[in-house]
Structures are given as C-alpha cells and as structure tokens.
Amino acid sequence: MKLKKSAEDKMIFLYRYVSLSLTSLVFLFETSRLMVWQKLLLIVFLFLSVTAFTWIYRKYRLHDMVLKCSIALETAGIILLLFPTGGINSPFKWYVITPMLVACAHLSMRYSWTLLLSYIGLVLTFCYIFFTPGQYFLWDLILQNINLFLVLIVTTMAMQVIRVMKDELKVAKEQANETMDHIKSIYHIMETTSHNEALNLGQVISDYTVKLTKQSRAFFWLDSQEEDAPASSQTGWTVEEEEQLFEELENYREEFREEREPFFRHLPEWGDFLMITVPMTTRFVATIGLKLGPDQSLTGRRWLVQQLIFLAELSAVFLERYELERIENQLIVTNEQNRIANEMHDNVSQSLFGIVYATHSLRQTWCHQPKEQVEEQIDLIQQSANQAVRELKGAIHSLSSKKSGGSTWLGTVKSHLHTLSKLNHVQIDFDIHGDHYSLPYLYQKALFRIISEAAGNAIRHGLAKRIDVKLKLTPQVIRLSIHDDGVGFETARMVAGGEAVSAGGGLGMMNMEYLAQSMGGEFDISSRIGEGTQIRLSIPVNAYE
C-alpha cells in the first residue's frame, strides 16, 4: 500500500538531506588525515545510504519492527562513522538528530529515549577508549560534549511534545469527522424520509443503522399486518435469510412489546443481537436490531446502545408523522367527499329531481294538453337538463386539475426542478412525451422521488452544471433518462467495493434502485470520472398493478 507523505515526513526528510549536506561541507573543508578524494567518496556513500534509509522509512512507516531495526542500524552506522572522521570531534556526531526525529515521529517514547541514551553511552565509551585513552577523565569528555547531548535531549523532548499534540489533534479530528458524519447521516435520513413514502421507511432505517454503527447487519421489524404499514426490512442478509429472520422474530413478538430499554437477545442460528423497541403512541410496534460481532468490546457496545436509542427516537418521529399524514389525508378525502355530496345535492340533484318530476307530470297529462303547451313544457325540461349538465361540468372541472388548469403532477415536477435550477445556478432541461394525466398515482410518486433524488445528487455530489431529464410515457412502459455533466465516479469500483453510500451521495442510488425494482422495473447507472453520470430507468406500467 502506497502511503501519502505528510507535511511532517516531508520536513523530516528534507532536514535529513540539508543536515547531511552541511555536515559534509564542514567535513570536506576541515583538516583531517583523510585525502580529499577519500572524503568525497565517503560523502557519496553517505548520501546513498541516507537515500536507502529514507526509502525504507517511507515504505515501512507503519511497520514498527522494520522501522526500529532500520533506525537502530542507521544510528550504529553513525557511531561507526565517527572512527574514520575524527571521533568525538567529527561533525557527523550531530547527524544522529535525523534518525532521532524519525523515531520520535513514528515510534514510542520508550524506544526514542532508549535509542538516545544508548547513542550517548556508546559514543562516550568508544571515544573514551579509542580516541582519548588517558587524556581525559570520562567526566571531562561529557563536559566537552555537553552541548551535543543537551541538543539531543531537548530535541527529543520537543519531538515527544509535538507527537503528543499531534495524536491529540488526530483524535480530535477523528471525533469531529465522526460528528460530521453523524450530522450528515441525520440530514440524509431526514432528506430520504421526506422524499420517500413511509412504506420504504424500514429500508432507510436499517441502512442507516448499518452506516451509523459501522456494523455489517441490521434490521427494522414492524409488528403489523396492515397493508398501509411500512414494510419490515433488513440490511446485510439475503432475501431468503430475511424471510427466515422475520419468521424467527415473530416468536418473540410478546417479549419485544414488553421491552422499554435497549436489550440483548441471542437468536438460535442467528447469533447475538442488540435490539431496541421504537417508542411510539401509534398503532405500530417496531423493533430495530443490530447483529453484534464476536469481538465487540463493552465500550463499543455502550456506543452502539447510544446510536440505537437515537435511531429509535428518530424512527418514532417518522412513524408518528406518517400516521398524522395518513389521518390528515383521510380527513381531507372525507371533507372533499362531503363537499361534493353537498354540491351535488344542492345543485345537480335538485335539477335532476325537477326534470324527473316534470317528465312524470308531462307523461300523465300530455294527451289532454294542446300541442303548444306540451312543447313549452318539453323546452323547460330541456333547459333544466342543460342547467344540470352545466352544474355537473362545473363540479367535474373543480375536481379535475386537467380540466380546471390547476396544479398537476407535471407542474409539480417542473416547479421542483425550476427551484433546484435557480437555487443552485444549474441548467435543467425537462423533456416529456406522453399522457401524464393517465399515469397512476403510485408511478407519479415514484418517478418524482427518483427525479428529485437524481437531480439532487448530481448537484450536491456531482457538482453538475447541466442536467437533462427525459421522460417517455406509453400505455405499456415508462422510460426515464437523467444525464448530468458532473465529476462522475467509477461505478465498477462502487459496486465491487460496496461503496454505494460514499460514492452516490448517501443512500440515494440504493433508494432509486429499490424504487424501480419494487415496481417491477429495471435500473441502470453508468458513470466515469470526469464524464458525468447517466441514469436509465424502465418500468412496465401494468407490473405493479
């Protein structure tokens, strides 16, 4: 794995070559028993050695044992270098700072101080034995090089302080990134549930449970058999396993209803789960479950409990909001039915009653009345019928957006895309062919969500400046194409590596594909870096029905 060089590494490696160059110049021009060509040859060898060690430090920066051995070997080489270059007076004795910097930057404090004290002890021992036999006491030798030792000690201490500060900053950055990911996930959940109907809420919650907890498997199980209830869903298991898992959960229905706090449950043949019952006042009883790994620590489980509590409260809000919207829609329908009934009763039904009464009366008396009077009554009946027709047409016009020119599905889509275009300074072209009035409501809702999600992803994540949306409606099939000129991404890598979440802007692509497949359609996406993204969708109209 190729590691990216940090600014710290670049600074240390630059210092290695700069310090070696300066000490080499001092060594080259100082008086020594070595010839100039010998000095040059030694300097070339040193540069080659430094290059080799620098390459090792870069390549094996994450391998502590290799790094320790390499630093120890380079330090030993510096000690040996003192013999031909002047012993305790050699300028290369200062060069030991460079391996010390590497040790302090990447290895433990214990190893750094052990290396430093070993270097000082070995240098003093070798110089006292081989270079100053009988000339100095050991204490005099220490005082003579006290500046070197103080610089090494202060440098090591400074690097250790920097290392601690760097580690603390790294932890703080990770916590900040984790907080930002958490906030983004909350935003994505809110955005997804605002665009998606509650029938897809289970999939959204289970997907984001996996994402927030960084586990591999989770489920959202709803204890309800009603058709308008959100569907139970899971993430991480196959379709066959999902069926078996939910059948197993049915056996614990009553136990789950009694739980009020997060709880652990072992399911035979499934493993250990952390679960929580969603606190709701609605007709639903839902449970969120998370599959635990075998090496899950106690601290990690406490963090998972906090995440599940948050997700359970969020799910309760969404489900209760769905219930309120459902009740509100029922009230709207009831009020509209009452309004239509009253309107029909006050106008159309009265006119029709008058026509029926007049017709019945005419039938009884027409043979006894003059022809002119019969024709006059027929004209009155015709006028009443025309009045009833006009009143009926008026009622139909007030109910039909197609006839009254009111808000339509197409108008809603165009308005949404126009708003996106103006707010984000993006050109969005929407081209539609076919009769959108005859499009069933469920298809209208799904298409709006897909178009909205795709356009939003192209703007937020693709940084697109132009989006082309083409919709073709026929009685048999619906074809949708959305193309943008954004930055694009590698779809093969996304599918192979399971990176749909990061590459596609949250779970947007998964939601679009799920919507298409749930209605019997086919979903295809193609993209390349720098060439934008194209989404193609094909849904047979009669498949869902």
Automatic annotation (TrEMBL):
GO molecular function: 4 iron, 4 sulfur cluster binding; ATP binding; metal ion binding; phosphorelay sensor kinase activity; protein dimerization activity
CDD domains the record matches: HATPase_UhpB-NarQ-NarX-like (cd16917)
Natural source organism: Paenibacillus polymyxa (strain SC2)
Name of the protein described by the UniProt record: Oxygen sensor histidine kinase NreB
Catalyzed chemical reaction(s): ATP + protein L-histidine = ADP + protein N-phospho-L-histidine
Cofactor(s) demanded: [4Fe-4S] cluster
Domain Histidine kinase span(s) in chain numbering: 343-543
Described function: Member of the two-component regulatory system NreB/NreC involved in the control of dissimilatory nitrate/nitrite reduction in response to oxygen. NreB functions as a direct oxygen sensor histidine kinase which is autophosphorylated, in the absence of oxygen, probably at the conserved histidine residue, and transfers its phosphate group probably to a conserved aspartate residue of NreC. NreB/NreC activates the expression of the nitrate (narGHJI) and nitrite (nir) reductase operons, as well as the putative nitrate transporter gene narT.
GO cellular component, one term: cytoplasm
Record key words, sorted: 4Fe-4S, ATP-binding, Cytoplasm, Iron, Iron-sulfur, Kinase, Membrane, Metal-binding, Nucleotide-binding, Transferase, Transmembrane, Transmembrane helix, Two-component regulatory system
Subcellular location per the Swiss-Prot or TrEMBL entry: Cytoplasm
TM region positions: 12-29, 35-57, 69-86, 116-136, 142-162
Origin organism lineage: Bacteria, Bacillati, Bacillota, Bacilli, Bacillales
